[in-house]
Every structure is written in C-alpha cells, then in structure tokens.
Amino acid sequence: VEPSANCPNGTRGRLGVYEILEINDGIRAAILDSADESIIHKIARENGMLSLKEDTIIKAMQKIIPFEEVAQIGGLMNVEEEKEEEEEKEEKTLEVILEESNEPKNTTRSDDGIASFERDLV
Fold first, then answer.
1. What is the pTM of this model?
2. Residue 59's CB: how many other CB atoms inside 10 A?
3. pLDDT given at position 119
4. How is the chain split into domains, by residue range?
C-alpha cells in the first residue's frame, strides 16, 4: 500500500473484494421455500457471510488496499439500514430473555431505543 519507486501510488495491479453467498443446506431450503430475500440474507449472515463493505474494510485494515478506497469500493454505509438491523437484533435478544425467564415482566422501549424492564414484585 505504501508508495515505492515501482509503484508511485502505493497500489499495483487489481485486487477483488467480494460478497459471496455460499449455498448451504439452510440457504437451499430457504430458496426452495421461496423465502424472502431478507430471510436468505439473515441465514447467510448467521453462517458467516461477509458483506462487500466488510471485505473491503478488512482488506484496508490489513493494508492490502488503501483505506481511501473503502468508500469507493463498498464502504459506504446505509446508516438507516444498519440501525434497523441492530434494533432487530436487540428485539430478538429481548425476546429470548423474556422467553427464558419464568417471572412476569413488562418491557418498554424509550424513544432512543433503550429497552427497560419492570419486574412484577410478589
């Protein structure tokens, strides 16, 4: 990545960054069930699929590509989409906590997205 006499810009040649959807049994079953794209994407992510953005950032952090290229190659962030994904993860976590507990609870979520719990005292 560093400029040299042979490569004044610090890069030489081309390097691919990829988002690869590996078809495993879970993905195959979802496709055969005509699952929504978001379901297939979720299964892929749970099985370790990296996004194009993540592959780009990893290669920049490893100094394989210049960090300045991240925004051009795939590092642009869709903040709203990522916020929705995080909120969905929080809700799933909250559901698991409530399901695993035998105590009745009331759960509220404030405007800033922070979940709070109120235990019913016996």
1. 0.51
2. 20
3. 45
4. 1-77, 79-122
